[in-house]
Amino acid sequence: MIDSKKYPIPRVRHHVSSLLYLPAHQHKHLPAWYPPDIDRIDWSTVFANGAPPTVLDIGCGRGGLLLAYAMAHPEVNIFGIEVRDQLVDWINGVIRGEQLGNAHARWYSVVNGIDFIATESIDRVFYLFPDPWPKNKHHKRRAFTADFLNMLHRVMRPDAVLYLATDRPDVDEYQGQVIAAHGGFVLSDPLDDEAWGLPGTTDQQRFCDRKNIPYVRRTARRFNVDTTPARDADAFSLS
Ligand SMILES: C[S@@+](CC[C@H](N)C(=O)[O-])C[C@H]1O[C@@H](n2cnc3c(N)ncnc32)[C@H](O)[C@@H]1O
Questions:
Q1: How many structural domains compose the chain?
Q2: What residues are paired with 126 via a beta bridge?
Q3: Per residue in 113-152, pLDDT tens?
């Protein structure tokens, strides 16, 4: 557990401009508050062992799981992607303060792709409570699409695992449909704590536990097959 007296958590607005979730190419003029693009990353300047990451935490928020994972697995490099810069600054402050050489967070929007991650280099991807578009009528704005799965499929090693959690039954159903249509992953049934098996909980999971809000956790294991071209996730009927 991170000492919040030593590392006071910044006040962060829950609702940011929805334009933040649009890919850069869909903006006429990129506002100053839009996260910078990432072409490539020199991992030797990021992690103490100079190696690239093998675990991604997409939408890592306040980094509760990222930090717990890094502490539990000091030999594993974990890379967090988060669109809210204040949270990224806070996480990286904790990482520096606790001298965690195997963790790093970057201010970036995942909707712009992860070309800077090497093919078949990742063992685990966390995509936990991330989507700012819980309503079905907004499903076209969600990051979780066939293209998103293609992108994950490319960077994940055969048998690597995508971890999914959501407190929105319609998001759970939608993600299941996108995964089924993609064909490159095997989705699990809902998992309990033991089957989930990750060290610590995410901040959102703790919030749900406190408020008795039910949530679903699943894994999607990557198949070792060529899944391109993917079918169009927008073709699903989501009534
Ligand atoms: C509800 S929070 C969950 C955070 C964390 N995964 C947890 O479970 O505690 C969702 C996080 O995903 C981030 N997020 C949403 N869309 C994103 C995007 N396109 N790129 C990067 N981060 C994103 C949000 O800023 C937010 O911090």
A1: 1
A2: 57, 163
A3: 999 999 999 999 999 998 767 676 777 778 899 999 999 9
- Kindly state if the Cβ of 200 falls inside 6 Å of ligand 1: no
Q: Which of 131, 189, 209, 234 is catalytic?
A: 131
User: Could you confirm whether 131 is annotated as catalytic?
Assistant: yes
Residue 11 resides in a domain: no
Domain containing residue 217: 38-235
**How far is the centre of ligand 1, averaged over its atoms, from the C-alpha of 60 (Å)?**
6
Tell me the pLDDT tens digit for each residue of 176-217.
999 999 999 999 999 999 999 999 889 999 999 999 999 999
pLDDT at 95: 97
What one-letter code names the amino acid at 156? Answer: M
In a domain, 58, yes or no: yes
Report the 10 Å Cβ neighbour count for 158: 10
How far is Cα 53 from Cα 102, in angstroms, rounded to an integer? 8
